[in-house]
Amino acid sequence: MRVRNNSESQPHVTTVRLPNSRLDSIQHDALFHLGIDLDDEETVSKFTNVKFVCVGGTASRMKSLASTLASSLYNIDVGTVGFEHSFENCRYSGYKLGHFFCVNHGIGTPSLSVVLHEVVKLLQRAQCSDVTLVRLGTCGGIGLPSGTVVVSDGALTPGFQPVFRTSILGEPLHLPVVVDQSLVADICNCHQPEVDDFSVVRGKTYCADDFYQGQGRLDGAICGYDEVEQKAFFTKLRDLGVKNIEMESAGLLAFSHKCGIKAAVVCVTLVDRLQADLPDAKEEVQSYPIQLVTKFIKSKLNTKLNSSNS
Ligand code: R2B
Fold first, then answer.
1. What is the mean pLDDT of the chain?
2. Atom 6, ligand 1: residue with shortest CA distance
3. Residue 271: CB within 6 Å of ligand 1?
4. What average pLDDT does range 20-32 have in this prediction?
5. Closest ligand 1 atom number to CA of residue 248
6. Residue 310 pLDDT > 80, yes or no?
7. Angle of CA points 174, 177, 178, to nearest 5°
């Protein structure tokens, strides 16, 4: 990302600048899965003021988040919210209003990476600046009751290393997982234990590449281990400081670091994996990351608006 400092007296403005210089010379480009033509200046310009991109697995959770943000940031009644741009197609759904853009990513890093490529290309084309990306997800906890919110301060992948394993031209490619610890602290600080119905913890996340064997479940269609080996896996994770298991954190943190965009992962536990394999949490726990991240975005936007007015 290139840092543009417009004048000595103004704060640094960090404009999205992706590490692919070829993008500048492509004649016609479109975002195939978002259904956006990058030559459509009217649509692209609607995204220029985006400061927060929120992603999460399901379209319904992202719509619920977008409605909550519209109401909380802009006092728009949840029932009447009209987005400046939205799409709901068979792959992904997205909702843009004011400073936020919410989009779902499906399950796992392959699905996530497709949408991330297209979202960050849109941010660059729209000349967005000072963007923060947050994943709001679900996960299994390690020794945490269902409904606990975990803010990731690291992510490990199979092999127990902080690297995202992907491929390039048929060869393995390992990208480092880098976490912005001040962003983690800022999000955690928005928790109000006296008001909120949920607990927040920070810790490492184990990013698996499968929901069943990859996460040590005994109830998959195939299972090549027993209860003792399952327990040893969880003990190892716990000893490494892992608080939760999901399937996207490492990809999101490594990809956004490579693109120079600040990012964080906030997930709610649906089951304590030391007790059970099957998620057992109430539906309402899915609102907990939404509540926490809404407070975070609101506080950051207030700070930005106050500093630009002073
Ligand atoms: C958590 O929940 C999903 C699987 O049910 C997956 O996206 C994840 O990481």
1. 95
2. 107
3. no
4. 97
5. 9
6. no
7. 140
